[in-house]
Design goal:
The chain has twelve helices and no strands. With 260 residues, the protein is mostly helical. It is elongated and about 65 Å long.
Length: 260
């Protein structure tokens, strides 16, 4: 599965978009109603939510729209989503500090948000260096958030009935893959290469992306398991659709493993 976290946002906001039809005559219920989600309190608020939603892919516009939503509608039930989308936008702009602050605010509203948990885990892990004095404290927190994301997404029901069971299961497997990838990256920082390789392997099993295979090969190579690293690189490089960046990484790991 190659869906990004945006897929989750699409699913969540789709529920809000459907509220445009809330004034239509009610039809007899054929099944029990789904759990009540957040709802806009006015047409103006709904328009602000849609503006934020439609700005995806344009970080500056997302930030502006999210700020306007939270400023003009202080009691909005979509504050968690606005904070999360703004955090992602800042991450895309390369401002990890601002992204982390906003993600923590979203998590304070909903500690069981698997999306906020996984994003925070990734941000903390990427911002942690081998020689940081508080390295273990930060990586321990990141691993806690990654595992929480896996726990919370496991039993999360589909937010939109239009999503098929297979699509939702694939999306959830993508979150699990990101969690294992994050734990793997933390163990690379610790130079625990065997542990890191095992985590990347599980990530790839859940979501067979080239990036996970390349990371696994790198961890194997750094851990002295050169034959396994070479075999994995051969498998990755055999993919004719592989993008140049992953080709370069695969060749680098393959060359390093061959020399040892």
């Amino acid at each position: 599965m190659k869906k990004s976290i945006v897929t989750g946002i699409l699913a969540l906001v789709a529920g809000a978009s459907c509220l445009m039809a809330q004034a239509a005559p009610k039809q007899p219920a054929a099944a029990p109603a789904a759990p009540k989600g957040p709802a806009p309190k006015s047409q103006a608020e709904l328009t602000a939510i849609q503006t934020m939603y439609q700005a995806q892919g344009k970080p500056d516009e997302v930030i502006k729209a999210a700020d306007e939503l939270m400023t003009k509608f202080a009691d909005t039930e979509f504050k968690e989503l606005a904070l999360y989308m703004e955090a992602e936008a800042y991450q895309q702009k390369g401002d990890a500090t601002k992204a982390q602050v906003l993600t923590e605010q979203a998590l304070a509203i909903n500690p069981k948000s698997f999306q906020a948990n996984i994003l925070l885990a990734e941000l903390i892990t990427k911002g942690t260096r081998e020689l940081d004095l508080d390295r273990e404290e930060k990586l321990g927190r990141a691993e806690k958030y990654a595992k929480a994301a896996m726990d919370y997404v496991k039993d999360t029901p589909k937010p939109n009935p239009q999503i098929t069971d297979d699509q939702w299961n694939e999306f959830k497997k993508g979150i699990v893959a990101r969690a294992h990838d994050t734990i793997g990256m933390g163990n690379l920082t610790r130079k625990k290469y065997d542990v890191a390789a095992a985590e990347f392997k599980v990530a790839a099993e859940n979501d067979p992306q080239p990036a996970y295979y390349v990371k696994e090969a790198s961890a194997l190579q750094n851990g002295g398991k050169n034959d396994e690293a070479i075999a994995l690189c051969d498998k990755v490089l055999a993919d004719v659709t592989l993008d140049p960046a992953h080709q370069d990484s695969g060749h680098t790991d393959q060359t390093a493993a061959t020399k040892k």
